[in-house]
Amino acid sequence: DAGVTQSPTHLIKTRGQQVTLRCSPKSGHDTVSWYQQALGQGPQFIFQYYEEEERQRGNFPDRFSGHQFPNYSSELNVNALLLGDSALYLCASTTIKVAVDTIYFGEGSWLTVV
Amino acid sequence: GEDVEQSLFLSVREGDSSVINCTYTDSSSTYLYWYKQEPGAGLQLLTYIFSNMDMKQDQRLTVLLNKKDKHLSLRIADTQTGDSAIYFCAEKGTGRRALTFGSGTRLQVQP
Q1: Sign of the CA dihedral A37, A80, A31, B51?
Q2: Which residue of A has its CA nearest to B97?
Q3: pLDDT tens readout for residues A45-62
């Protein structure tokens, strides 16, 4: 049973560039959330996708956008990168179809902005 | 808004029990989670507890929830060097889709 998979694992971008990160949820899951984890801090919620729509959003600017595909996989896009966007980006998956809300995370994508 | 607090650091000897504590502010919290993060890695779900429970045991892990005081703890029995990591407490409230995390507790296990 494949868990949550993310790609790429590491990447380096220059200020002002754009980046796309990808996530495939755990088998049987239909809901994907994205989190940003800065060094030494806990993860911060960016947004959640279900049925190809953004369902809830955290306190992140519009430079952060996403998409969910019919196969439930998801992308996180960040435009006009800032140095402060350097962080570990984590994807989490779950499903609303069961009573118990277990939430699993991937290994993350390390983004360095220089 | 919602807030989750954890102590920053805990050091124990191998074979001892570890107790990691967490407090939260949201009285509507429905699920509370413990995650483990090893260096350079993602988050591993260790266990979770529903808010109508006060205890949950899973092998070496025991979770205690005091809903009145909004206090959650994770006890690791017979702590091993492989348990050295950062442990995050997280909560999810009614009607909210996001997890709110604490800043993490770094557990150091001395051989």
Answers
A1: positive
A2: A56
A3: 999 999 999 999 999 999
